[in-house]
Amino acid sequence: MPGPVPVPVLRRLGLGLGLGLGLLLLTGAAGCKRSRAPVVEEVWDEAPAVGDAEALARLAPPWPKPSRALLDNGLITFWLHEPDAPVAHLRLLLPVGDAEALRSAAVVSVLHAHLVATLGSRGRHRGLVVESDLAPDRIEVVIHGSVDELEHGLELLGAVAKDEGGVSRSVLVELLHRRGVGDAEHHRYLLDALENDGYLVTEGGRYRFRSPLLRDYWRARVLS
Predict the structure, then answer these.
(1) What's the sign of the alpha-carbon dihedral 183, 122, 66, 141?
(2) pLDDT tens-digit profile of 113-154?
(3) Are 189 and 150 in contact (CB under 8 A)?
(4) Band of residue 16 on the pLDDT scale cut at 50, 70, 90
(5) CATH class, 149-222 region
(6) DSSP E strands: which ranges in the chain?
(7) Structure confidence at residue 72 (pLDDT)
(8) pLDDT of 188-219, one tens digit each?
(9) CB contact burial 87-97 (16+ within 10 A = b; e otherwise)
(10) Number of helices (H) and strands (E), helices first, in the chain?
(11) Per CATH, domain 9-33+63-146 is 3.30.200
(12) Which of 211, 169, 204, 214 is nearest to 190 (CA)?
């Protein structure tokens, strides 16, 4: 079974938190693990009109075929990431299935609304755009993310991990300036995202890791 295309650490953490919730909502409501994956019709964009295909192909980047993963519980994921591209794209099909707890359209609608609200809230803290659609037999989720923002977040965490006493905001802002990120609003967004995700806390005007264990791990595995 092909696995998903590798993505940066923060992306895996961020998507894992949000997408894990969607999986728990659907499988938890069913109350049991399906032994056989349901049949899900794959719906793609409409084919271009005759004569447009060649013109569109010249404009489109050379995207590879999406990597597809089918999990034991029926969750289907599609990863699409062009090497060295500034964005990544993730599409998930969450089959509703025929479990008794999910036969009510109202129940599925409530689950879908809660999933969209939760992923949208978490996505805003991670620079992700979340889109979703409810079909009769599945919930479709599409997530787009910027690789650059995640790389900047990794650099900030690396800078904080190097100093046991924490790092001042001015030092981190200077680091972002050197990376070409000069927008004060963007600085605030990145630092707030790391706090909201539970990586960093601020004490006495200095940023430090919320968990000493996480800081030790970061120093040993990331900075070494």
Answers:
(1) negative
(2) 888 888 877 776 666 788 888 887 778 888 777 767 777 888
(3) no
(4) very low
(5) mainly alpha
(6) 67-70, 76-80, 87-95, 128-135, 138-146, 167-168, 200-203, 206-209
(7) 64
(8) 888 988 888 788 999 988 999 998 888 887 78
(9) ebbbbbbbbbb
(10) 7, 8
(11) yes
(12) 169
- Domain boundaries of the chain, sorted by first residue: 9-33+63-146, 149-222
Contact 167, 177 (CB under 8 A): no
Closest CA to 124 of 113, 136, 116, 135: 116
Q: Say how far apart CA 48 and CA 123 lie, in whole Å.
A: 31
What would the two tokens of residue 141 be?
A: 């989720």
> How far, rounded to the nearest angstrom, does the alpha carbon of residue 183 sit from its chain's CA centroid?
24
CA dist list (Å): 88 to 80, 147, 157: 6, 7, 21
pLDDT computed for residue 184 by the predictor? 84
Beta-carbon count within 10 A of 49 CB = 8
Distance in angstroms (rounded) separating the CA atoms of residues 97 and 103: 8
Q: What is the pTM of this model?
A: 0.42
Alpha helices in 70-130, H assignment, sequence order? 105-124
Q: Which residue has the tokens 């056989």?
A: 36
CA distances from 47 to 12, 40, 43, 44, 56 (A): 32, 20, 11, 9, 11
| Residue whose tokens read 């620079």 | 127
